[in-house]
Every structure is written in structure tokens, then in C-alpha cells.
Design goal:
This protein is about 30% helix and about 25% strand.
Length: about 120
């Protein structure tokens, strides 16, 4: 598997407005916006991905093979999926949605400082 330097989904997360990254819990590459987490990749293989989804999508997605409610975060509608569970484009859509859901909860001042528009 690609390292985080060449991984296309990691690069995608890095490209989202206001995204920052760090290592949490010694084994997760975590992406945040405005200090709030929107994606996590299990290290070192980056095969497990966690992200926030809309409540209606949560039930549908977690019925699919390779996608489960995220441990400790399911109550906030986070899923954990294996890369092979969905095509890369679908995972990018989920990561984009997760970023938007988290960014929408930020204050107007923080969104403006991160050059993120108003929630839609």
C-alpha cells in the first residue's frame, strides 16, 4: 500500500479547505477542520478509514460489507470502512461530506478565517 505521502485519499483530505492533520492515539492519522476531526486513517497501512456521515446515510452504509459503525464515535454518526468496501470516488465523496458536516458546525468567524463558505 502507498505511504501517506503518496496515498490519493490522504492527498484528497489534505486538499480540503482548512484541513490540518496529526497523529492521535499513536496509530491514527487524523484530519481536522477548525480543530474538529473529520477523517481518520488507521496507521500504518491506511486501510481503515473513519468519517462522519448524515444520520440517514449511516444506517444504509453500515449494512454494507466492510462498513461498520465506528467504535466510540457511532453515536455521532461516524462509520469505519475498509478501502475495498467502496470505489475511491465514493470514499472521496464521503470524506468531502464529512468535512462539510464538521465545517458547518464551526462558528462563522472560524469558517471565515479558514476561507470556508457558509453551510449549504
Amino acid at each position: 500500500m502507498a505511504t501517506d505521502e503518496t496515498d490519493p485519499l490522504v492527498a484528497f483530505c489534505r486538499s480540503l479547505p482548512g484541513a490540518t492533520e496529526d497523529i492521535k492515539w499513536d496509530n491514527d492519522l487524523v484530519f481536522s477542520v477548525g480543530g474538529k476531526m473529520f477523517a481518520a486513517f488507521g496507521l500504518p497501512e491506511l486501510q481503515s478509514i473513519g468519517c462522519k456521515v448524515e444520520p440517514a446515510a449511516f444506517d444504509v452504509l453500515t449494512r454494507q460489507p466492510g462498513i461498520i459503525p465506528a467504535p466510540y464515535l457511532a453515536r455521532a454518526f461516524w462509520i469505519s470502512l475498509k478501502r475495498e468496501a467502496l470505489p475511491q470516488e465514493a470514499i472521496e465523496d464521503l470524506l468531502r461530506e464529512s468535512h462539510a458536516l464538521v465545517a458547518a458546525k464551526l462558528s462563522k468567524k472560524v469558517r471565515k478565517s479558514l476561507e470556508i463558505g457558509e453551510p449549504t
